[in-house]
């Protein structure tokens, strides 16, 4: 099936089979390999990318369902202000070891900060529950996210809630 | 040979930020599944749905010929045979593709190849296998009676090996005992779950006429050895490359069927092939771990000083012995670590390493030690309760004392140095025992019960030749290698035989080289994981890399420095004895010359070299520590838990570690290793388990069933260090990578015991699930008031 | 909770299927009916967070997926005088973020925010959860407790069913094969209404062993306690609900709940009973002292 979408700011046209998940589409068709597959059933978070600005599981999203949408992977978020702060903090505070969970972790952490949900360690821990790391034991990841959030002004970064809804008076 | 080092910002002791971060933080890591090759095809496997069966036939639709491979299609493959040099170990081959029989659910029967993984899985569905189902051996204790079937033909029973370990005189010593504690402990089967599963990609490089295998492995040179043997080809025409590896923890240190099959297909087909393990396959057939059963009888005096330990240990090793070592490694380590860090002089372990119709086991962070630690640490707590003393005090009375160092344990482990009681005290301070006790007394508003538990261990690391020979290892990883190569522009490349998969060795080894040569770590490349680049090495396992590769880099760098000084002195027109190498330059009485200038001369201006000195500045050498019985890292762990007696839920409120791993090259990395290990240990303690049903079917298959420790449930892990250099290694370093995972099951189970002390409940099986906790509480309450059968229990 | 079928599934890429996106409800229903006539197994997909996971494991392999996630009608929220009617394709994240007026006085946003993980909540939908009726899923229990009604549309027209009767068993509902959930109507709780919610899961975001939801709205003469969680279909605790409505004290309600529990399929399981007792007590204690 033909699809057209925007990936990391660039328009993309492709012909994909319906069963191709977004993660495989990004990795195989577009050579964007930062997004990793760790479970393919939505729990580990290694495949987290953004779809129309919202974090999603690329393993549980069909490429064909993304027709007309905007996708961003870590590769397309590198110079985003929040992401820059996160990448710097993860480096300074040892927020990664093997690196496999890192792209998904960064995308989730960025969303947390953007929604103003990185105000405390316990809030960060709860917010990152959907990203499994096997190497770090989380302490340094949480510290990295907190440090990044502190380095940014929270108020500037809080965005309005997800908007797939329109409310109509009956 | 220990050399004291002054702390610097770039060398040994520095919290140097990691060189490997840059690529991962940009999403430019290269794991096997990220590699692109033209015409690459995916492999999916037909796997046995039965635990034990004879294969009667395999039907492959005619139009799939060329895409499906069974044992008959690859007749040249020999079986993997793990042959430890241990008397009485029964050897059986492990065929990469099952031919006559399957012995565990998930065993590979055929490989299907297609342009995408989804299509390859479609092919799997079209292959029809007929089976004659045989009785499955699932309960390892059944091996001690008559088993309904035999896994391996020609064996008298389903035992890999039966072995008694002993030292001292248990039967005599126990006569003097005033108390006896008898318990049974179980550490259930689990898997390692690196976030990147296994992955293999292979193709034939026509230009070089070699088979190239990209493998997510911890031991590339060893894999090459194994592949050469099984494929029947020369090692010089195989190159194994471990690119970025997303965690291993021991599970990627064995040769497994899928690696053999993909390599064989890559050798024979005209296009590259790859297999990327999915999570379901990881649970099914990656290296399984733990699965120990202990019966411990401990004899002690009235103060709780242990006089003797008599044990029975059953290790459920699964259907096959994994190449190269086989499962006795696990059993031996468990048995020899039952005495722990305690001064126990009489010890006996009757061990049974059993074959069952389950996935084969192998090493996973800590190997046999988490189970042994669980057994002895729980027992020490029970001894303390029986004699009416604080478990901490009983530990102090049993621990090996600094004055006893070096100390040869009754199990022939030679503790080199360490202040074990001091570290236990530091641990108690770190967790703030007084504050915990106060909180316990006060009571929780939500009614949960607070508990505090301790556990400690001494981790053998960097052990060398003699130790591996003692263990009967077929290969002796008692050394490491390094080739240090100065480029003409004075930058440095270190080629090493280990394989960094999260431990930051690209950074720490550069710190070591800086220490010796004064070249900035940013100008040093560490190349590892590639048999085409590095001299033969033994990979990253057994907490060995810092000691072994760190030592190899130090030694090789020093040899290189000697030559640099020779050349530099000549350029400075002084004698080498008047010159020194520091800060990236050679300094003499009348001036200095940079390493860059020296390197340029050595490569491009040979006429300026001194008499008898050859061009190039490349040195290769191997290193082994001054002692081969290992250097021991001790740590004491403390866990604070809250137990909900209505649901059995356990929350770890606080966790503290006090450890001493000798000289620390990079404290940031060491702390990260401790924390990561501890959380894996908490996984063992509370969450992780692969149960099998009576037919040998594994009962978990996804992360919905197999729970992983997540950020929301984990506490902050507090880490306190002391640094006592060991006399036997470069800079006095010790290994420590596995340690964090060894004690949490024990410290948490002891904390739960403490929390439930008023009820008298014990949980002696991991993971300590809510179900097991509630059952233990019920059992304890039934013991207290057995007549209360009809009462409403809340 | 163990899933033996999943343990046997040794595949992680979905089987091939056809895919079509419907722009309207009418179109979606038409496609479903044609598929039925042609003997094709067609399934509706919105967020796909449960369905696609099952398809990856090949536990479910429909021939055709009909994507309804972009049908405007299904994403609308209607603010009625006594209720809020939420379109079936409204995501958990939208409810969490309070993107619409909240009829539940905080219950629904709180539940939404603790459901699975954020990256799943941005796609998963209220309608999808109800259609699946996984007993360990929060919405089935909560919608029953709050007295919601499920609006369905099919080739035979529209109908509305009480949430309480909508789920009939494990993963079983009264939805006919060619029916689509259109909306969920949630009565607005009055100012004096109170609710309690407690769930027991071992790990954040994972399936719950036990979920207890309590809603009392005396002004509307409504009181309900519903118990869900893996292992058995959610059930309304009738005696306890009655007892609650009659303003009985905490212990009486708790006792009545215990009696109700004896009727559950997992009543023989001591662990489950203890855990259910805990969640019920905790939910009740948020409402009664």
Instruction: Give the termini distance of chain B in whole angstroms.
Output: 63 Å
Q: Can you identify the CATH class of the largest domain in chain C? A: Alpha Beta
Question: What's the average pLDDT of chain B?
Answer: 96
Topology order of chain C in helix (H) and strand (E) letters: HEHEHEEEHHHHHEEHEEEEEEEHHH
Enumerate how many helices of chain B there are, as a single number: 18
Say which CATH homologous superfamily of one domain in chain B is assigned.
Aldehyde oxidase/xanthine dehydrogenase, molybdopterin binding domain
Q: What is the level-2 CATH architecture name of one domain in chain B?
A: 2-Layer Sandwich
The largest sheet of chain C has its strands arranged as 4-5-10-6-7
Low-confidence stretches of chain B: 788-794
In short:
The complex is a heterotrimer of chains A (170), B (794) and C (289). Chain B is α+β, with helices and mostly antiparallel strands.
Q: What does this entry look like structurally?
A:
The complex is a heterotrimer of chains A (170), B (794) and C (289). With 170 residues, chain A is an alpha+beta fold. Chain A has two domains: 75 residues, Ubiquitin-like (UB roll) (Roll), CATH 3.10.20.30; 76 residues, Orthogonal Bundle (DNA polymerase, domain 1). Chain A has six helices and six strands, in the order E-E-H-E-E-E-H-H-H-H-H-E. Chain B is an alpha+beta fold. The longest helix of chain B is centred in the C-terminal third of the chain and has 27 residues. The C terminus of chain B is likely disordered. Chain C contains twelve helices and 14 strands. In chain C, strands 4-5-10-6-7 form a five-stranded antiparallel beta sheet. A four-stranded antiparallel beta sheet of chain C has the order 11-12-13-14, sandwiched between helices. A three-stranded parallel beta sheet of chain C has the order 1-3-2, with helices on one face. In chain C, helix 10 packs antiparallel against helix 11 and helix 11 packs antiparallel against helix 12. Classes of the chains: A alpha+beta (170), B alpha+beta (794), C alpha+beta (289). The interface between A and B is large, with 56 and 57 residues.
């Amino acid at each position: 099936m033909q699809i057209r979408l925007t990936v990391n700011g660039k328009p993309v046209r492709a012909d994909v089979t319906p069963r191709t998940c977004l993660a495989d589409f990004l990795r195989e068709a577009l050579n964007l390999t930062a997004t990793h597959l760790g479970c393919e059933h939505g729990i580990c978070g290694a495949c987290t990318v953004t779809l129309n600005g919202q974090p999603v599981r690329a393993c549980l999203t069909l490429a064909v369902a993304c027709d007309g949408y905007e996708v961003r992977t870590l590769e397309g978020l590198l110079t985003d202000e929040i992401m820059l702060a996160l990448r710097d903090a993860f480096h300074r505070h040892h927020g990664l070891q093997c690196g496999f969970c890192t792209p998904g972790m960064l995308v989730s952490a960025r969303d947390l900060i953007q929604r103003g949900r990185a105000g405390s360690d316990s809030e960060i821990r709860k917010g990152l529950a959907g990203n499994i790391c096997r190497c770090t034991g989380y302490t340094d990841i949480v510290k990295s996210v907190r440090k990044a959030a502190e380095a940014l002004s929270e108020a500037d970064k809080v965005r309005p809630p997800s908007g797939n809804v329109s409310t109509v008076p009956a | 040979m220990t050399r004291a080092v002054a702390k610097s910002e770039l060398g040994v002791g520095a919290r140097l930020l990691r060189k490997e971060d840059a690529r991962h933080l940009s999403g430019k890591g290269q794991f096997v599944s990220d590699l692109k090759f033209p015409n690459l095809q995916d492999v999916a496997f037909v796997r046995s749905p039965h635990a034990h069966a004879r294969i009667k036939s395999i039907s492959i639709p005619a139009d799939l010929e060329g895409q499906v491979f069974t044992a008959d299609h690859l007749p040249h493959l020999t079986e993997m045979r793990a042959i430890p040099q241990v008397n009485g170990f029964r050897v059986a081959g492990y065929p990469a593709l099952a031919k006559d029989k399957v012995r565990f659910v998930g065993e590979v029967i055929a490989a299907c190849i297609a342009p995408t993984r989804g299509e390859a899985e479609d092919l799997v569905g079209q292959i029809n296998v007929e089976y004659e189902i045989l009785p499955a051996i699932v309960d390892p204790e059944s091996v001690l009676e008559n088993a309904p079937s035999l896994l391996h033909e020609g064996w008298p029973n389903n035992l890999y090996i039966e072995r008694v370990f002993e030292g001292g005189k248990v039967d005599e010593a126990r006569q003097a005992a005033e108390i006896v504690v008898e318990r049974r402990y179980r550490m259930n089967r689990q898997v390692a779950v690196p976030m990147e599963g296994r992955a293999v990609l292979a193709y034939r490089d026509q230009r070089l006429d070699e088979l190239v295998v990209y493998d997510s492995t911890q031991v590339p040179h060893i894999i090459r050895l194994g592949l050469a043997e099984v494929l029947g080809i020369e090692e010089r025409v195989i190159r194994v490359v471990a690119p970025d590896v997303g965690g291993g923890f021991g599970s990627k240190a064995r040769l497994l069927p899928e690696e053999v099959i993909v390599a064989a297909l890559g050798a024979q087909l005209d296009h590259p092939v790859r297999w990327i393990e999915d999570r379901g396959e990881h649970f099914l057939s990656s290296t399984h771990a733990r699965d120990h059963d202990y019966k411990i009888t401990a004899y002690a005096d009235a103060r709780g000083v242990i006089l003797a330990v008599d044990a029975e240990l059953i290790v459920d090793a699964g259907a096959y012995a994994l190449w190269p070592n086989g499962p006795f490694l696990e059993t031996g380590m468990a048995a020899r670590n039952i005495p722990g860090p305690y001064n126990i002089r009489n010890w006996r372990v009757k061990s049974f390493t059993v074959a069952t119709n389950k996935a084969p086991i192998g090493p996973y962070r800590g190997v046999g030690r988490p189970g042994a630690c669980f057994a002895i640490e729980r027992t020490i707590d029970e001894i303390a309760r029986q004699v009416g003393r604080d478990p901490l005090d009983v530990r102090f009375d049993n621990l090996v004392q600094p004055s006893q160092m070096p100390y040869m344990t009754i199990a022939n482990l030679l503790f080199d140095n360490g202040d074990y009681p001091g570290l236990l005290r530091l641990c108690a301070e770190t967790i703030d025992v007084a504050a915990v006790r106060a909180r316990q007394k006060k009571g929780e508003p939500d009614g949960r019960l607070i508990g505090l538990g301790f556990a400690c261990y001494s981790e053998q690391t960097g052990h060398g030749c003699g130790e591996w020979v003692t263990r009967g290892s077929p290969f002796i990883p008692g050394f490491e290698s390094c080739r240090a190569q100065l480029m003409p522009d004075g930058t440095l490349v270190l080629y090493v035989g280990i394989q960094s998969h999260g431990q930051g060795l690209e950074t720490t080894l550069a710190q070591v080289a800086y220490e010796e040569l004064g070249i900035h770590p940013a100008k040093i490349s560490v190349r590892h994981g590639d048999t085409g680049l590095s001299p033969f090495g033994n990979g990253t396992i057994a907490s060995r890399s810092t000691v072994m590769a760190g030592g190899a880099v130090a030694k090789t760098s020093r040899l290189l420095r000697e030559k640099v000084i020779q050349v530099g002195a000549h350029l400075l027109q002084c004698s080498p004895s008047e010159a020194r190498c520091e800060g990236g330059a050679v300094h003499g009485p009348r001036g200095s010359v940079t390493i860059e200038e020296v390197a340029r001369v050595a490569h491009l201006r040979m006429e300026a070299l001194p008499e008898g000195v050859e061009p190039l500045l490349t040195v290769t050498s191997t290193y082994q520590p001054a002692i081969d019985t290992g250097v021991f890292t001790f740590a004491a762990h403390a866990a604070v838990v809250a137990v909900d007696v209505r649901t059995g839920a356990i929350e770890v409120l606080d966790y503290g570690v006090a450890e001493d791993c000798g000289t620390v090259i990079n404290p940031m990395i060491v702390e990260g290793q401790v924390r990561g290990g501890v959380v894996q240990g908490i996984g063992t303690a509370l969450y992780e388990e692969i149960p099998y049903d009576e037919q040998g079917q594994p009962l978990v298959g996804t992360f919905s069933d197999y729970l992983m420790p997540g950020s929301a449930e984990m506490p902050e892990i507090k880490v306190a260090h002391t640094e006592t250099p060991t006399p036997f290694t470069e800079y006095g370093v010790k290994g420590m990578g596995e340690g964090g995972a060894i004690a949490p099951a024990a410290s948490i189970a002891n904390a739960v015991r403490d929390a439930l002390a008023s009820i008298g409940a014990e949980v002696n099986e991991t993971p300590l699930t809510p179900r097991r906790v509630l059952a233990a509480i019920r059992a304890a309450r039934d013991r207290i008031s057995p007549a209360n059968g009809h009462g409403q229990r809340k | 909770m163990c899933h033996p079928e999943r343990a046997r599934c040794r595949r992680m890429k979905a089987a091939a299927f056809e895919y079509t996106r419907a722009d309207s409800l009418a179109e979606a229903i038409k496609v479903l009916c044609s598929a039925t006539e042609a003997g094709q197994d067609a399934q509706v997909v919105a967020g796909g967070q449960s369905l696609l996971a099952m398809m990856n494991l090949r536990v479910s392999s429909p021939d055709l997926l009909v994507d309804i996630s972009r049908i405007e009608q299904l994403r609308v929220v209607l603010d009625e005088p006594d209720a809020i009617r939420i379109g079936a394709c409204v995501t958990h994240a939208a409810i969490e973020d309070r993107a619409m007026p909240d009829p539940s006085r905080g219950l629904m946003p709180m539940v939404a925010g603790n459901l699975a993980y954020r990256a799943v909540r941005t796609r998963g939908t209220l309608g999808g959860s109800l259609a699946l009726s996984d007993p360990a899923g929060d919405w089935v229990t909560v919608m029953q407790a709050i007295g919601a009604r499920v609006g369905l549309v099919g080739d035979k027209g529209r109908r509305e069913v009480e949430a309480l009767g909508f789920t009939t068993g494990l993963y079983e509902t009264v939805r006919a094969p060619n029916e689509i959930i259109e909306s969920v109507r949630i009565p607005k709780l009055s100012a004096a209404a109170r609710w309690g919610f407690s769930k027991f899961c071992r790990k954040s975001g994972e399936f719950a062993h036990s979920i207890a939801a309590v809603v009392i709205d005396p002004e509307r003469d409504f009181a309900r306690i519903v118990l869900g969680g893996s292992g058995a279909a959610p059930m309304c605790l009738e005696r306890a609900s009655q007892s609650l409505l009659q303003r009985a004290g905490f212990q009486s309600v708790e006792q009545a709940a215990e009696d109700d529990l004896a009727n559950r399929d997992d009543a023989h399981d001591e662990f489950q009973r203890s855990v259910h007792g805990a969640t019920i007590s905790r939910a009740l204690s948020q409402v009664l002292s």
